[in-house]
Amino acid sequence: MARTGSHTNRGFYVSIRRLVELPAVVIWNALFWTYDRATWQYDLMVIAILSFIWLTPPDLLGDPTATGPGLIGLILNYIQ
Amino acid sequence: MSFTGAIGAASMFPLNTIIRLFVQLRIRPNFLTLVGVLVNVAAAYALAMGHFVTAGFIMIIANIFDFVDGKVARELDMETHFGGFWDSVMDRFSDISLFVGLIFLYAELGRTDYIMITALAMMFAIMTSYTRARAESIITKCKVGFMERPERIVLFMIGAFTNRMAAVLWIIGVLSLLTVADRVYYTWRELDHTQTGDFT
To answer: What ipTM was estimated for this complex?
Structure first.
């Protein structure tokens, strides 16, 4: 019984450890990019990039050719 | 299928028609490469003049030539070592010309900050190609890092069509720097650094 309990505890700690390490693994995999095109990881990266491009207010970046609050600013203005 | 895969597959329909047309006309692939660069220079001029949407359309045409040259060479059985070399060199000219167009525009607008950002993005973009080429002279393959030429081209088009070039330049700069770092790290790892003693 004790052995089973120890196994359960070890499994629990391994799961917790994996959960704690997950953000670090995700960040490392995003920084050290080894995925091919047309994978779900690639899709996620594309979504993140397009979100930055279209949601960041041009004024925040000091864009020389575009002005205005951008999509986030428009949504915030609408909510207010 | 991923959504980027679906977009790629959908784009192949018109491109295959263009490839068939060029194959039937027996146009030399190296000539297609050259035309692609010249059209890209026209896109750079439009960027320099601040005509972003026009530049976006010209970039589409330029990159059709750029994309089909290799496929046409394969179809016509005209693949040569020089063709590969010529393509790589012309790609660098195309890349640099777009950045130079933007540098001219920002200089005209008196924006030194964005001249620097564009220049740094250009430097890192060129370094991504250089690191891979140099790495593959000593290791078999060095295809790591996100920001390669197709990504850069699509980002330029998105920036041009939606007038969000500043954000695009930040993305190209940061992700190109990361790609260079990835390639340096990967090559160092592949060369078994523990034996050579580099950095240890």
So the answer is: 0.89
